[in-house]
DNA sequence: CCGCATCCTACTTGATACTG
DNA sequence: CAGTATCAAGTAGGATGCGG
């Protein structure tokens, strides 16, 4: 009875989930569009890095987020994690071939960003000014 | 006194924000990497769409999220919002030149995703299997 | 030195109801 | 039809302390 509307929404959500699950782009976006993943991949572009180096290099990422991000990238086969069981332990991260194949795409995105960021910022200012005027 | 921890958190956040503010790529990623923005831009690729059309087409996005996403895109100058004051009101959204210039990049990302999604999924399975074995 | 586990906060998202 | 406001809930992010 009163379930009709609720039901329809639930159905829509299921359809949506099914759609999302089938969309490779969104799955990839979930990884590369992640708050830190892009930075990490970029930081690894030059070569292998140790955990601590990345932490310094990316300043702002908590140790937790860094580890979490690295593990996600490792899981997706974009980076390898090499543990050297010395004392103390040493851990190196390096891009895999798959990870490196992503670099050009990231570069393209970066290029677009750097090229158009001004337009975006200008548009943003104009928009905000308009908003302020209306308020 | 009890402000110390709070204070440090604020400071750290400021440093982080300053870093982020200087990175055009991250600013752009914040928009295009958004959960819905990509879908919306794609849905608008063919031409102008009404609010309701997008809602149908993207099924799964709540009306709130759709509006929120569209406003963000409008703010960044990627889409235009045209209101026709008829009864009832009609609103059309359309990609701007800037928005269309983003399409190729999105396509590149999509292409990479479709090409490598299998590798990613394979890596993911292998990783999870390894995890399960360890647990 | 690395990373895991815990706790806690804040932001994001979604459902619902109401206005123009 | 389009959009806004409010409230509840889930999730991501961060601080801290412990273990390998």
UniProtKB/TrEMBL annotation, chains A, B:
HTH hxlR-type domain segment(s): 23-121
GO molecular function: DNA binding
One Pfam family named in its UniProt record: HxlR
Coiled-coil features, chain-numbered ranges: none
Keyword annotations of the record: DNA-binding, Transcription, Transcription regulation
InterPro entries the UniProt entry points to: HTH_HxlR, WH-like_DNA-bd_sf, WH_DNA-bd_sf
Keyword DNA-binding: yes
Gene3D superfamilies xrefs: Winged helix-like DNA-binding domain superfamily/Winged helix DNA-binding domain
Leader sequence residues: none
This protein's record includes keyword DNA-binding: yes
Record's protein name: DNA-binding HxlR family transcriptional regulator
């Amino acid at each position: 009875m009163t379930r009709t509307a609720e039901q329809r929404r639930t159905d829509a959500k299921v359809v949506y989930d099914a759609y999302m699950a089938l969309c490779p782009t969104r799955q990839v976006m979930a990884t590369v569009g992640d708050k830190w993943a892009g930075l990490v991949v970029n930081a690894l572009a030059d070569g292998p890095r140790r955990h601590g180096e990345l932490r310094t290099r990316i300043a702002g990422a908590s140790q937790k987020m860094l580890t979490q991000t690295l593990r996600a990238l490792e899981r997706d086969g974009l980076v390898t994690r090499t543990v050297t069981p010395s004392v103390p332990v040493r851990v190196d991260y390096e891009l895999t071939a798959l990870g490196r194949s992503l670099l050009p795409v990231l570069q393209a995105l970066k290029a677009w960003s750097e090229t158009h960021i001004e337009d975006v910022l200008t548009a943003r200012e104009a928009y905000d000014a308009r908003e302020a005027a209306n308020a």
